[in-house]
């Protein structure tokens, strides 16, 4: 019986993780969960799974959360605040941590799980973008097992020998696929006028709002290129992106002998979640199986860098190294939030990221505190530019 901590349990990945766990009550016990602000969701999940601990990350909601959770889960101990996320991720009685908080807020608890030697199931790509070197080094030092949940990286992990992209084993190049998002066939003028509802209406995947906007700008793929560099230690020149509107092939590994190994599956996050939860076994996910006879129309095309400039900005940040990916991520988080709140237009997301990258000097953070300080610096710079953008 594996004892789980699910951070971000009220979100899309958190709930899909619970759906897989429901199929295997003999394998997994949900001992710790956390939410950001969704009290009702947290209370409902506590009542259903009776975890030992629950965290509401926003401390201002603690008293209300105590009342909500006491009704259905009187034995669950409620904690509050970001530090509690780290304490549970590192707790001696937790075996597996599912890192499914969205954004930079997930970094400290992801790092805590890596340092504590846990089996770390990683959905929170922003943590690796910001501090991938530090998280990977902490995992190596502690003996933590890091398993990617992001579908493309999970696919790569499955197609690589021992999950490693070592050129000595003939691995040439990694390919990530992108659906292209809802604006794949839209003109630049149409994209400039895109509304929030149009941006979050992803054609193939049901996801949280932030990653849905990231998919529409292709920043999601840019973040994933950086995530792949961190996870598999390959340079940007060995990571390619293909637009594949059907979202059936999630990733390809190209070998020196001309072979390509591809990972295929229905676009359903329960498949990579089940792979990581069960690893090294294979367990049922509840996802629909593909009918191979329905696969006669798999299309691949090059991304359009002019209409989707975020992809190039991510490669630029990865090549610049050091704090540049931190600035990229911070500016993107602020820009997406501003877009979702109606403060800026869709094309200003990439403009704000580009401006922040231009303004932020590149430095090399050596520890988590420095990474978090650089994240704050980038947010200040992005905030100043945002003020100028939104008054235009
Ligand atoms: N959804 C997908 O299909 C998918 C696929 C691949 C990778 N990912 C990655 O997985 C992560 C989660 O994505 P998602 O789509 O599941 O997002 P989501 O639906 O928006 O859920 C985000 C979760 O994070 C919690 N949260 C937000 N701010 C927090 C904070 N400051 N402190 C603690 N918890 C906080 C939310 O809590 P409340 O709702 O309670 O506020 C919620 O539980 C992202 O990094 C995303 O890129 C997602």
Detailed description of the structure:
This protein is α/β, with parallel strands linked by helices and 392 residues long. It is built from 16 helices and 11 strands. The longest helix has 23 residues. The mean pLDDT is 97. The protein binds NADP nicotinamide-adenine-dinucleotide phosphate (NAP). The site of NADP nicotinamide-adenine-dinucleotide phosphate has 29 residues, from α1, β2, α6 and α10.
Count of folded domains: 2
Instruction: Give the SSE string.
Output: EHEHEHEHEHEHEHEHHHHEEEHHHHH
Instruction: Determine the structural class based on helices, strands and strand pairing.
Output: alpha/beta
- Count of separate DSSP helical elements: 16
Helix fraction by DSSP (H/I, runs of at least 4)? 40-55%
Based on Cα principal axes, name the global outline.
globular
Task: Return Rg in Å.
Answer: 20 Å
How do the strands of the widest beta sheet line up side by side? 4-3-2-1-5-6-7
Give the termini separation.
57 Å
Bound molecules: NADP nicotinamide-adenine-dinucleotide phosphate
Assembly state = single chain
| Averaged pLDDT | 97
CATH topology of the largest domain: Rna Polymerase Sigma Factor, Chain: A
Beta-strand share of residues: 15-25%
The main β sheet shows up as: 7 strands, parallel
